[in-house]
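Model the whole thing, not chain by chain.
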Amino acid sequence: RQVTVQRKEKDFEGMLEYYKDDEALLVKTLITDFKPNTVTATVPCLPAYILFMCIRHADYINDDQKVESLLTSTINGIKKVLKKNNDDFEVTSFWLANSSRLLHCLKQYSGDEVFMTQNTAKQNEHCLKNFDLAEYRQVLSDLSIQIYQQLIKVAEGIIQPMIVSAMLESESIPSLAGVKPMGYRNRSSSMDTDGGGPSSYTLEALIRQLGQFHGIMRDQGLDPEIVGQVVRQLFHCVNAVTLNNLLLRKDVCSWSNGMQLRYNTSQMEEWLRGNNLYQSKAAATLEPIIQAAQLLQVKKKTSQDAEAICSLCTALNTQQIVKILNLYTPLNEFEERVTVSFIRNIQNRLQERNDPPQLLVDTKHTFPVLFPYTPSALSLETLHIPASLGLDFLIRV
Amino acid sequence: RLPSRPRILLKAPTLAEMEEMNISEEEESP
């Protein structure tokens, strides 16, 4: 079985044969004991392709039990890894990429014509011959959703403690440093001289963290559509936590903080553009805090000002607009507070909107996740398995 | 291309059922 005969690639059929007794070893080597960083220099989602090539061989020899057993062990193995690494972004992202890739493979090689339109002739030859795995596709889709939810939970847990200080408290515009509303100057300056406690994250640190998440997901070959959905969900979290704090804290409702917040949101938008994520709908989730920042900056005196505010603040509800106007704190003795009659004017204008009464944003709101079908251009017969993976018990067929 | 012959549908348990089976298997093993 260990005799290796040099064969040309065209002789391979893109399948991997294994002995039934080796199934547990396969799952242990490729899933439960697997370290994602051992395959950084190979084809993205290598474990998914290897598993699929094993499934193909079991299908080819018409062994339904072997197919079912491998798929069940694979799914249970992935669940086990996720449970053990439930706070690890890299491992969770890796298995999201691989389960969704395995799901795509089960579709691409199912023999269903809807999934074959982009296949090469060779890929069509590699379609499953004997079994319809539609029910297992459903299980893998459910599993992928579970992994996605875990990934969001892990990422949110990392960025949540950074959001308030990065978006509302750190001073990323140098010229604005020290310009704070009356009576709040000390709070910020004492934080700066602390030398950075656990709560003093800068905007740069938050963006760097988002960059790390993005880099990991991209390098692991997670579908760009899924990456976009993760980023959108994290941007929703940034928006919700920032806005909720703004709505409860008088000290951040000032003209200069509006300027700071507008700058910070523009940096976030810039990050999306720089990473080709602007189409991901993530930018739209920032609209409420962009409008809140503008609301802090615009004039709030005349009836025309009231009209302008109402047409500007479409992503904030009446309660939120009124609350920000009430909290607005003048920067110095030359600036006036927002008058009661101005706020009434706004309320009258917004009456017809019938906005919901909730003041705070639901930070836990989750957008429904979708895994659009993404076939691969890879030819299975060309797949190279590095010897370092310790899978020499698999026989290329 | 020749039309392929119909494939046999392999019935799969749900994700939750798979987990239950897995747990009971682990309990049985020493």
